[in-house]
Write a structure and sequence with these properties.
mainly alpha
Length: about 300
Amino acid sequence: MSTYPEYVHQTLNRAREEGRWYCGQPDAAALCFDILALFPDCEEANELVYELFCDEWTVYDNRVAVQQNIDELDDRPWQQRRRLALSYRFMSRWEGKYDIRKMERGGPADIRKILDDGKMELLGAYCLGDEECTDYAWSIFADALNKAKDPRATLFWIGWQYADLGFFSDAAEALGELCSCFNDAEARRLLAEVIWWRDNAHRIPWIPPAGDGSRHDRMMESIDPAALKTKDYVREARNENQKDRIAPYRPSIDKGLASLFSTAISHEEEKSAESIVDWSFLDADDGQPGELPDWAKRQIK
């Protein structure tokens, strides 16, 4: 840390002080992201964000907030992304998201309809778990970029949409492309935050371990044996989705090329980092009616 300017040390000390207070952790983390926007290799700022997120009340509040939308027993893969997206929205203090002109009105006016079509595809993956929709989304966004009068604003809007829906790797690519072409401090600040979430998503302490939907299927079996299983649900959602929107488009990646990538990428299941929350109760639940004990709901090591 000695190689960084003095104001970096002062900002980190300020972040630690703010992080001591209830609900101060998001603001303290924002100071760390300000540093990472200027000094991406500042490991102390990177780790301080994680320490702040491990605050007991921060973990508790986020668990409660996320569970208002998604039950912790629901281990379908796309629900994990939704948990991350919700958590990102709860914790982000990036001021640019409050700029209604950029964020709430659908992007640049000249290509707003195209961008809206692309966002609808992203929502197909976000809400319905159809990962193929992300291919269609990028095809549409690429078309929008080719037609845009302001590629800079368009790329920024696209990067934000990816981030807001929990597609942090895609957001980092879009914003990284923007920062490589333009000197944009706002985009650099958002990129720093997105990269942190991309690299640390596996160890957010209030997010349960990733699953394959088997726990959800087991739970639903006891409630409604006729309910669609995870794999069937995605296929059914895809069929309905394609009728209205996907049919005119084709994925941007050739099937042969996709197969080549598939053989080159390891398919070993990524293991979650050790968590300060005891998640063992998720597998202990038998899916039968009844309240979980308090220790299962609240236990933090």
